[in-house]
């Protein structure tokens, strides 16, 4: 669908990422599907592969950057995503009868063409990332695919290949991966430490082992004494074999850049606990030097040990009241007062919503004016009273527009929030915030995750007054109280590593529970607790699924079950393979879920076919990450398809996600179309019945 666009410039590239709607050139194409990169908060656009797909070397970015580095005097190691992972992470184009991996033989020659160009430019080592090696793979299929691929690569003279995987253990995949014709293998020895002994046994002596000993995904200073012991073990086992390299566990894309901007922003003790990308490279260097001559870096090792000990013994970390409250929980804290069918009747009487109720997911456009007012307030150029009045004015205008547009359940717009996790972290104990700790999320969108360093608690209400004000602006329609769920706050923060993640999540859940109860007491009848990251947190290996799903469901229920039957609890999920977690979604016992749907070709319908779902549900009718506005007809077709699988009395109409990144004109047009779709569906349903 992008063939008509300019494939040489950036037009097709951006259309794939954002969609393109341009009436002057008669173009209206949606973007590619967007998914999370394994279990991270980084996103990627999902390639679509047709039957008999042809491949062409289209972009020379890798080669250009290698040459740029060479001109500066460096022989860099180019990094490319391997062809097996590329196809495994793709999906069949509409109408395709084959799997993307079936096109491997057509793709490998294009890779060989690129590798040949890199060799001619003077490259020596090529890092080929094959992160699917950390997944459960069918050995009969993937062993052959990898063998054919890397046998072809080995024919390119003058190059050495580092096969790289990360984010988890290779497990049984290592048995055959170790035999591939490559020159080195990188191991994530932070999250995949269980591989070490088998790797030392299986990886041939002539292959380099790249030891990923420094955590590339968190921000805590490494315990160098502990990691040095692992490195020494590897070196001893390898004896006179190929060299051992020291590295981060994965790409440093997932870490902020440098601690330098934090000096003066964070206290010295906290700074001593942290390590961003630049500092992680220093840790890599110290480990490598220590393995050769520990005396040469003795002072640095001693300083590291002192700071690791400082964090472990700090009185700032543990709060006995939080620990005691967790220990006192009983099974009743994880149950609603009644079953869903009883609650549904009570909520229908209390809310009096129409068939196919319409709503949005939460946020409305964060315009330049909104961001400017927030910046002025933080700089002291805008007084508290002035800023508060500005926020109330924006909230009132947002609610009035929703009411006039015909939406049924309204939201306040979240103009006071910079980020759905950062906002709550700023109001909770146990969090700290960096000044420049940005990491990429997708495209040019970056996030600045909060840091959970200690036990979490809620010292005061966070959203109650704003929600009460918003509800006062809408006397006839409910306004949702908007909260972020405990799993998402956990997943989108840098999390302490000195206790199980499940325990930290439970602490957050208690804080959210207190807020939910206070919202209900403040007259809020609909409360949404978003969990867009619950699928993201799912472990990569299926043997680890059940433990994670058990505690993630429990902490959501802990956060949401303190309310009466009449109070309707919503939750939201996005960009997930729902089939893998649909049973867990059902177990959350939410009254209404809103769920991403439009960008994934109605894959949700497949999940609904397999798993019956009796509660209310709002599959997204349009993609909010694109400025493209879908027509009434397009959304109506999608809504009609959903009605084949979801009872009319349980079906909601809503966008895929929050509207924070969009502009008001497109938001108004799209939501007006959505309201029209729901109204037309009501008329059609009445006519049929």
From TrEMBL:
UniProt keyword annotation of Methyltransferase present: yes
Enzyme Commission number: 2.1.1.14
Highest taxon listed in the record's lineage: Eukaryota
Keywords: Methyltransferase, Transferase
Protein known as: Methionine-synthesizing 5-methyltetrahydropteroyltriglutamate--homocysteine methyltransferase
Species this chain originates from: Linderina macrospora
């Amino acid at each position: 669908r992008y063939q008509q666009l300019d494939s040489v410039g950036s037009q097709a590239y951006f259309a794939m990422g954002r969609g393109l709607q341009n009436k002057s050139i008669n173009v209206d194409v949606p973007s590619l599907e967007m998914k999370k990169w394994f279990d991270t908060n980084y996103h990627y656009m999902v390639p679509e592969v047709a039957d008999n797909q042809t491949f062409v070397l289209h972009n020379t970015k890798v080669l250009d950057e290698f040459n740029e580095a060479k001109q500066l005097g460096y022989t860099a190691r180019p990094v490319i995503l391997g062809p097996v992972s590329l196809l495994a992470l793709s999906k069949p184009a509409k109408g395709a009868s084959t799997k993307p991996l079936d096109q491997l033989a057509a793709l490998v020659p294009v890779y060989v063409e690129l590798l040949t160009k890199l060799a001619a430019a003077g490259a020596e080592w090529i890092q080929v990332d094959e992160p699917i090696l950390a997944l459960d793979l069918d050995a009969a299929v993937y062993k052959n695919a990898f063998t054919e691929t890397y046998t072809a690569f080995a024919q390119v003279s003058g190059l050495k290949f580092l096969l790289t995987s990360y984010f988890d253990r290779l497990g049984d995949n290592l048995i055959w991966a170790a035999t591939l014709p490559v020159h080195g293998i990188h191991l994530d020895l932070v999250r995949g430490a269980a591989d070490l002994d088998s790797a030392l046994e299986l990886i041939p002596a002539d292959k380099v082992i790249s030891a990923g000993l420094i955590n590339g995904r968190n921000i805590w200073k490494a315990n160098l004494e502990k990691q040095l012991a692992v490195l020494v073990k590897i070196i001893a086992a390898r004896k006179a074999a190929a060299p051992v390299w020291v590295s981060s566990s994965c790409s440093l894309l997932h870490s902020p850049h440098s601690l330098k901007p934090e000096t003066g922003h964070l206290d010295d003790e906290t700074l001593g606990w942290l390590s961003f990308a630049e500092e992680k490279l220093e840790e890599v260097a110290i480990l490598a030097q220590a393995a050769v001559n520990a005396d040469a870096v003795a002072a640095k090792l001693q300083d590291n040990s002192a700071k690791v000990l400082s964090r472990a013994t700090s009185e700032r970390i543990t709060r006995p009241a939080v620990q005691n409250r967790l220990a006192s929980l009983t099974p009743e804290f994880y149950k609603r007062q009644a079953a869903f069918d009883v609650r549904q009747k009570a909520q229908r009487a209390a809310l009096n919503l129409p068939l196919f109720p319409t709503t949005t997911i939460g946020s409305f456009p964060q315009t330049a004016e909104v961001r400017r007012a927030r910046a002025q307030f933080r700089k002291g150029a805008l007084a508290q009273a002035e800023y508060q009045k500005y926020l109330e004015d924006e909230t009132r205008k947002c609610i009035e527009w929703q009411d006039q547009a015909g939406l049924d359940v309204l939201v306040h717009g979240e103009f006071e929030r910079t980020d759905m996790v950062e906002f709550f972290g700023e109001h909770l104990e146990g969090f700290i915030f960096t000044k420049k700790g940005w990491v990429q999320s997708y495209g040019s969108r970056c996030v600045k995750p909060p840091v959970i360093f200690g036990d979490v608690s809620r010292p005061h209400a966070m959203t109650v007054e704003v929600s009460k004000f918003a509800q006062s602006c809408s006397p006839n329609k409910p306004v949702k109280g908007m909260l972020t769920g405990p799993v998402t706050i956990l997943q989108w923060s840098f999390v302490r590593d000195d206790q199980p993640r499940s325990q930290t999540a439970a602490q957050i859940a208690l804080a959210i529970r207190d807020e939910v109860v206070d919202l209900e007491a403040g007259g809020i009848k609909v409360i949404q607790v978003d969990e867009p990251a619950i699928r993201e947190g799912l472990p990569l290996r299926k043997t680890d699924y059940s433990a994670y799903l058990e505690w993630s469901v429990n902490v959501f229920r802990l956060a949401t079950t303190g309310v009466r039957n009449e109070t309707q609890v919503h939750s939201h999920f996005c960009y997930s393979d729902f089939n893998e977690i649909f049973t867990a979604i059902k177990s959350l016992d939410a009254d209404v879920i809103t769920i991403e749907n439009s960008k994934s070709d109605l894959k949700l319908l497949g999940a609904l076919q397999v798993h019956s779902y009796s509660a209310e549900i709002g599959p997204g009718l349009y993609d909010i990450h694109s400025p493209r506005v879908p027509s009434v007809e397009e959304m109506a077709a999608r809504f009609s398809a959903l009605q084949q699988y979801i009872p009319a009395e349980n079906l909601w109409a809503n966008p895929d996600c929050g509207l924070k990144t969009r502009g008001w004109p497109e938001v108004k047009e799209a939501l007006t179309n959505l309201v029209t779709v729901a109204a037309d569906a009501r008329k059609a349903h009445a006519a049929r019945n």
